[in-house]
């Protein structure tokens, strides 16, 4: 008999909502939500430390986006007409979405990935065992893919043969369906790294295919992750060149943890290649990024690599991950207006490489890439007075 996931009862123990307001221009999202959260905590007697994780849902019924399967309404307009209020309907759909995330194991997959990033492998295994995670493949598309995440857990436990078998099964399941989204299911980069020691030739071929698929997909995060894997299965100068390109791609994405991994791996490679000063800069950046992500295991490895190079980690800069520095803000504002890096560098009298690093910090803090800056910095880009950008445009 195939294993099944244990039944889950999802209880609603409290409810709260914000006050009805005609406009909320003067309040940030945090200012709107915090009173609601405190109301729930007060009603239940819970403290924030009692909450293991949060699982969100979202909905915009008025725009015809009550849930993913109603997206077709965008083509004909929302129904009922938007002159009516559907706040309660939005809330019902959002609650349903969060409930589905729990029942399908989507929340489990994300929690396992977080625990693995923090080096808490035993806790990740216990969570997997509790809910038979990865043993049952959902009929629906669930992000992240459960079999792939379970393979990551097997790799972390050193069970590479089992992980290889699982990852090949993922490929057999998805390839006939043409499902090749490298962000949703990066089984190729994982498989390449898993078999690198036993079959380096096949590992290189799989890694190259992963890079080609990621380049067609087109996002810096997907490309950087695939290049990172290709670098780890390559050797010599090829490995260093691939890892350097992986870092450059990930610097253009909001993938903070993947960037931290690439920085640490690149620094370790340069250290072993006899370039300790170049290695030190990358390892320190990787250490800071890992610390900001809460990736304790990766941060510990960065410290070990620095120590092995005869270097002592400097005091980490404390950075508010939700706020941009003045330089990051200046660069991001111009990038949001479509300026190229070269033009930004000339305007601000800084190096083009400095622009890339500042944008990378902005992407990580804002959780977006270059294409999303304009939507997140409207109050800064409109009427900003930036030279060459007419006010009010």
UniProtKB/TrEMBL annotation:
InterPro entries: Sig_transdc_resp-reg_C-effctor (IPR016032), Tscrpt_reg_LuxR_C (IPR000792), WH-like_DNA-bd_sf (IPR036388). Residues 317-382 form the HTH luxR-type domain. SUPFAM superfamilies: C-terminal effector domain of the bipartite response regulators. PROSITE patterns: HTH_LUXR_2. It comes from the Bacteria. Residues 374-393 are annotated as: Disordered. This is HTH luxR-type domain-containing protein.
